[in-house]
Amino acid sequence: MIKNIGSNTQLKKISSIIAYRAFSKATSVDNRFKCSLVQKYAARREYASKQPPKLTSETYSYVKRDEKYKKLTEQDIEHFRAILGKKGSLITDEVPSDLDFYNEDWMRKYKGQSKLVLKPTTTEQVSQIIKYCSEQNLAVCPQGGNTGLVGGSIPVFDEIILSVANLNKIRSFDDVSGILKCDAGVILENADNYIKDNGNYIFPLDLGAKGSCHVGGVVATNAGGLRLLRYGSLHGSVLGLEVVLPNGEILDSMHSLRKDNTGYDLKQLFIGSEGTIGIITGVSILCPPRPNAFHVSFLGVESYEMVQKVFQKAKNELGEILSAFEFMDKKSLQLTKSHISSPEPLEDEYPFYVLIETSGSNAEHDSAKLETFLSSAFEEELVLDGTVSSNESEAKNLWSWREMIPESSAAGGGVYKYDVSLPLKDLYSLVDAVNEKLEAAGLSSITDESKPVISAIGYGHVGDGNLHLNVAVRTYTKDVENCLEPFVYEFVSGKKGSVSAEHGLGFQKKNYIGYSKSDQEIKMIKQLKNIYDPKGILNPYKYV
Amino acid sequence: MIKNIGSNTQLKKISSIIAYRAFSKATSVDNRFKCSLVQKYAARREYASKQPPKLTSETYSYVKRDEKYKKLTEQDIEHFRAILGKKGSLITDEVPSDLDFYNEDWMRKYKGQSKLVLKPTTTEQVSQIIKYCSEQNLAVCPQGGNTGLVGGSIPVFDEIILSVANLNKIRSFDDVSGILKCDAGVILENADNYIKDNGNYIFPLDLGAKGSCHVGGVVATNAGGLRLLRYGSLHGSVLGLEVVLPNGEILDSMHSLRKDNTGYDLKQLFIGSEGTIGIITGVSILCPPRPNAFHVSFLGVESYEMVQKVFQKAKNELGEILSAFEFMDKKSLQLTKSHISSPEPLEDEYPFYVLIETSGSNAEHDSAKLETFLSSAFEEELVLDGTVSSNESEAKNLWSWREMIPESSAAGGGVYKYDVSLPLKDLYSLVDAVNEKLEAAGLSSITDESKPVISAIGYGHVGDGNLHLNVAVRTYTKDVENCLEPFVYEFVSGKKGSVSAEHGLGFQKKNYIGYSKSDQEIKMIKQLKNIYDPKGILNPYKYV
């Protein structure tokens, strides 16, 4: 049972309740994460339609197969078989359903028509495959764990799928420097467990899909995830990459140096390139020491302005131990209520809620810092009510109120999802603007079931400037879509935000890059694509 | 007076001595840094020869002016005068000595022959200047604070010097997100002071030259500096750049988003590009909250193996508050003794010394963590002796033993300096190998003054894998140089290290990149240079 520490009149209780509540062993914390993530993953599978997805080429009939790409022949397959050698590394359409996992995305929103999946076991094999594809003009869709959300990891037409799933070895781990070198196909959770067991380190990135996604995939998509606030972006922590270029050449940049100022930092181009200019086959990454203690608190806040003030205060006072700062609005919590059996974190309702996680090397110190911070936040009336986890299961419960929002917002019939970055001060104004627009158009009502839209809700990673805008609907209509788009993108563009904070461009957002990048930037991005992949064989129909 | 907490028999003393010794106000800490840096800067000027440097073209007579570049005419100068308008933004050779500051490097090792310095006040002016230079084939040397150590910021021949010193405005600072936007020519220390005074933030990089170097310059050279261990590299913290490309186009990528996955991360190419593919005119950077408390400890250690163990332990136990981990060998300290008036940190001599700095949000907590860490390091016999600063002046004294090494190692007559990155386990073996080689060649002796070499010493940023190898000599000889080179570079190359950890390539290391990068990487680096600067007008004769 979570105790309620809040309300302004109960300030003195805080210290006694908070004191030393950390669940302090890394192993149990991991279980907590694992549980909630497995739950999340399962939820996603449930959330997706049970119907097989329609072919992408049918849903988006304006996209046509580029006839410059050769169609696969038996000779090609024989050539690949000779490269790969052993059985099981090559999947054809002999049993068509064998291909479904590779042709369909996680959300079952997209479906490709590939007739061939290749699963090389060495970088050399990847190189030989790509060299042949380049010579033969065969289009290739590189694939990691296939957990992407923008249709980037599945083919659009008949591209050959090159899965790195069998490139799955830890190459080395230095327990003094914390530098991990591994194949691209190592599952994120396996990498994290390995470095936990071999020196008590932590992978500097965590994701809902950690049990399925690959290390190479998170680098190729520059995934953000749950630890970005604390450990920064992959552009800072990746030290080296091994990449097979679109002509089949292997770029061996598997460096393991924190400092190296000898030439342009080539690897940076491949971080977030979504398989369009090279296939990442190896990753060298700097991992930080694993924190020993985690605390989670859940707070009620009066306004978005106050959310920002709490964030600023948390950064200053919790400083080096602040590891997550998430917010959600009242409607997010209201929608979640009907889909969650856990006790509510707070007795009363508040316009906004904040979830703060700290992680550090000393549970007592962290607890004391949190106590001081919360006491003064109450005193300054930045926070109206709050609770702090006293054990693992309470922490998990608090996190679940944040993690269940995506499913809950879809449960009324459907959801339009936007993943945007905005300057902090403008972050929530998008949600207000969308609700106003929907109401003005007479499309939205929480109670009137004849209206297509229930409400727009906002939540996300305030710490990273990343808003998830979900428009919960009873039914999908063209009117709603026209009301939302391009309005949302124009709004984000007007505030110099990003239309894709963490999910990437893939197939879904290929045409929206202009809302976040200038013509000049797009010209330079296309220039790089043309230089590295002049034949355009890598991941076509996507990105730019 | 610094108290000695060490020796194995005095373990119980530690706790009473360490308890709450932090000098806890940010302002006083800043003064400490400022003092030691001013000292360092002054020292550099003293260290450099009082003689004006020889022309680079004389010292390195094999480098010839490329006749594809047009020679400056009066018409060109008139054109630039028209662009810049106001007086004082353009320096010609009317009074030749006015050009010296811009033509000579900090160490007075290189000297260019430029007849014109341009100091635009707007990005638009930079754009117009570069557009004209591109059309006219006029070579340009971009210059920031001119504090580089590899001859990268001064011309080799008659290149026009484009100084960004007058682009010196803070554009904006968001005290909620910590995002600073400023012109490239803002002095690093001014930027740091500004964000300290406007929200208690800290610039995520610190340097000896902070009072002179520019924000744009540190980004263009991907400077590492004193805070890298804590705040990571600029590739992680720079959020956006404004760059004038070699054809004069302005690339406006002044984004202020922590997360933005819409296309290749173009700005990364310019971080560390040393002015060869564009001139950085604006920087957007994420700044962390300023720590409130700093502690410094100085420890005696038995072997380099133990240094590594102490580092590993410090990372795990000091975790989020560890902000510097420096090491030095016995000879480094011996050389320093004769050049420093401060009391010695430890009574006895040890084979290796470690300086640990912590910085955090709570002085008591940090002190307690340090105490626990040191007690157990003594118990486990990882550390033989040690001392902890109890106030600002003691901390400054401890730092001075590390900071005075560069000067001290040169005081015997001269010094060959190498700034390399190596895998941690191999870091010190380079020093041993060099000393063995020098001794075997009969070139080295600490006592015999007829030998050219005194000794090779090793010190540096263990936390970053960055070794400073200084070969202290009585006199420079060709024999010593031939004994050291290419041996040092080959050694570093053999361990997959970097021949330039933080100083960059510039003019000095242009020809050594092959020791750190493969042919494939060099090919790709040259390809990028040719794409962005096909006429080669930006910073010629350098980098690649």
Automatic annotation (TrEMBL), chains A, B:
The reaction(s) annotated as catalysed by this protein in its Swiss-Prot or TrEMBL entry are: (R)-2-hydroxyglutarate + pyruvate = (R)-lactate + 2-oxoglutarate; (R)-lactate + 2 Fe(III)-[cytochrome c] = 2 Fe(II)-[cytochrome c] + pyruvate + 2 H(+); (R)-malate + A = oxaloacetate + AH2
Please give the cofactor(s) recorded in the UniProt entry for this protein: FAD
Per the UniProt entry, the Enzyme Commission number(s) are 1.1.99.39, 1.1.99.40
Keyword tags: FAD, Flavoprotein, Metal-binding, Mitochondrion, Oxidoreductase, Transit peptide, Zinc
Q: Which SUPFAM superfamilies match?
A: FAD-binding/transporter-associated domain-like, FAD-linked oxidases, C-terminal domain
Q: Which GO terms describe its biological process?
A: lactate metabolic process; malate metabolic process
Q: Name a GO CC annotation attached to this entry.
A: mitochondrion
Q: Which cellular compartments is it found in? A: Mitochondrion
> What InterPro entries is this protein classified in?
FAD-bd_oxidored_4_C, FAD-bd_PCMH, FAD-bd_PCMH-like_sf, FAD-bd_PCMH_sub1, FAD-bd_PCMH_sub2, FAD-linked_Oxase-like_C, FAD-oxidored/transferase_4, Oxid_FAD_bind_N
Would the keyword Ligase turn up in this protein's UniProt record? Answer: no
**Which Gene3D superfamilies does the annotation name?**
3.30.465.10, 3.30.70.2190, 3.30.70.2740, Uridine Diphospho-n-acetylenolpyruvylglucosamine Reductase, domain 2, Vanillyl-alcohol Oxidase, Chain A, domain 4
Record PROSITE patterns: FAD_PCMH
What Gene Ontology molecular function terms does this protein carry?
Answer: (R)-2-hydroxyglutarate dehydrogenase activity; D-lactate dehydrogenase (cytochrome) activity; FAD binding; metal ion binding
Write out the coiled-coil annotation as residue ranges.
none
Annotated ranges, domain FAD-binding PCMH-type = 110-290
What is stated as this protein's family in its record? Belongs to the FAD-binding oxidoreductase/transferase type 4 family.
Role noted for this protein: Catalyzes the oxidation of D-2-hydroxyglutarate (D-2-HG) to alpha-ketoglutarate. Also catalyzes the oxidation of other D-2-hydroxyacids, such as D-malate (D-MAL) and D-lactate (D-LAC). Exhibits high activities towards D-2-HG and D-MAL but a very weak activity towards D-LAC.
- Quote the protein name from its UniProt record: D-2-hydroxyglutarate dehydrogenase, mitochondrial
Its source organism is: Hanseniaspora guilliermondii
What are the leading ranks of the lineage?
A: Eukaryota, Fungi, Dikarya, Ascomycota, Saccharomycotina
